[in-house]
Amino acid sequence: MKTFKLFFIFIILSFSCEKKVDVPAEIPSDAKISSLEITQDGVPHSFELRNNRLIQEDKFIFGNREVTVSKLGLSAGASSTIKQGDVIKLKYSDGDFLINVTSKDGTKSQEYEVFYYYEYPEFNVTELPAENVAKTSNKLIIADWNGLYSTPLYATHEEETRNNGYIGWQWVCGENAAGCVNKNPAIKEADGFSQNISFVKPLIDVYDAGDKDYLQYTAILMKMSGIDIVSMDNSAGDTEYPLTAHPRAFKEVLDDVGLEYSLQFDRIIYITSTFGVNTEEDLIAAMQTGYEDFETRYFSSPQYHKINGKPFLSFGSDREESERNLLNPKLLNIFNSESTFLRPYAYETISALKDTGYGFFYLFENSHDDAFFNNIYGNAPRIWEIQPPAFQNSGSGYVYDVGPEYDYDETSDANTINSASDYVYLRDWNDYRRSRTFEPSVNFGYEQLMRVIKMQNLKTTEDDLKLATDMYLKRKAYLGVQYVQKQLDQVYQYLKAFQLDEARELLSTIPLD
Description:
CATH class of the largest domain: Alpha Beta
CATH superfamily of the largest domain: Glycosidases
Largest sheet: 8 strands, mixed
Structural class: alpha/beta
Number of strands: 20
C-alpha cells in the first residue's frame, strides 16, 4: 500500500511539472510544414518539427542577424507567409517567429512557431585606468546634478510608487503641484518618446537616475566635457529615498571614472517634515545624522572635492519662514568645523546674495549674524554661474526670467573662462522640472555641452559625445544578452580611458535598429 501511494504521488508530480504546450488537436494534412532550413553566412541550420513547433537543432553564431530561408517543405499546393528565398531579420537574442501555412483550396490553415538560438563567443573585459581630458585652463567646472528621477523598473520608495513608479515633479506632477498637467511616461508620444511634464526631453528618453547604465553614460559625458566636480543633491534622509540612494550609486561610478564630487545638503526641511520631523530639535537631529553619513561615506574619499583640505559642502534649495534658519550658527554647530561651507549661488561677493529673492536663504543688512556669514563667504572661493535657457516650469506654471546675469552666449562664455573666479558652476545638468539642462536633449541635442567644451578650448567633438549615447542605447537594446553587455562593459572602459577610437570601433560591431 505504501509503495502504491508513493508511486501515485510521483505520477502526479511528474505530470504537474511538465511544461504545458498548446498543440492543435490535428494538424491539417494539406497545411503542413515538412522541413525547414535557414542559412546564416552560408551555413545551413536545420529545424526539427514537433507538432506545430519548429526547434533549431544547432545554434546560429551571434553576429549577422539577416538569415535566408534556404529550404521550406510544404504540403502539395500549400502556401505560407514566409517563403523559400526570403531574408529574415532575427532579434538580438534567442527568439521566435511565426509561419502561417494555408492549404491549396484555402479552407484550412495552420500556424507554426519557429524557435532559434545563438551561440555566443567568449568575451573578456579588460579593466583600464581612468584618464582625464586634456585641459589648458585651471578653472574648475562644477555641474549641479539632480538624482531625483525614477522609473518603475528601479523604483522602491513610497514616494516613487505613488506615481506608478515615476517620481513626482520630474517625469510626472507631484501630488501638490498646482497648475501641473499630469503625464504618463508609460505612454509614447508620436515622436516615439515618453510623455513627461518637461518641455525639454532627454535625448535618451525618460530614465532612472539610480540606473548604472545611465550613471555611466552621464559620467562619461561629463568627463568629455571637461567637468571636474559633480555637485550632488543629497537629503541624507531615508536611505531608499532617491535623493539619498541615487547619489550613493553615482559615487561608485564617479570614483571609477576619476571625477570629483561634492554634496549639496538638499531638501532637508521637506524630507524631515515628510517623515515626521517637525521641531527644531528634530531637524537638528536629522541633520546631525545626515552629516555623520556624509563623513563616513563621502568625505574620506580621495575623489571628494576639498577646499584648503576641507570637504566642500554646500546647501540646496530649502526655504523656511525664518529665512536664516538653515544656516544659522545654532544649526551649523552640529557640523564638524573641518568642513568648508558654500552656497553655490554666492557668485563672487557676499553682496550678490543680499535680497536676491530666490528664497533659499537670505542675508540682510545689519543682521546680528552678518559677521558670521561674512566670515564664511569672505573666505570662500569665487564662483561664476552659467545656465542654459529655462522654459516654462511645468510643475508650477511659471516662466523663469533669464536676465543678463544668466546670459549664455559666446561673449559670456569668454567672460566666464577669463573671469577672476575659481569655479564655473553649471546650473543645472538635468533640471527637467524647469526644462533647464546641460544634459543632451531631443530639443537641442548636444548644443549646451558643446558650448561648455568650446569655452574651455577642448578637443572633444560632438561625435565623441555621441559614443556615450550609443553605449547607453545599446545597453537598453540588448538587455539580457550577456555577451553584448560584456562588449559594452569594454566600451565603457575605453571611454573612461579616453581610448575613443577603440570604443568607436567596438560599438560599430554592435548593430542598433
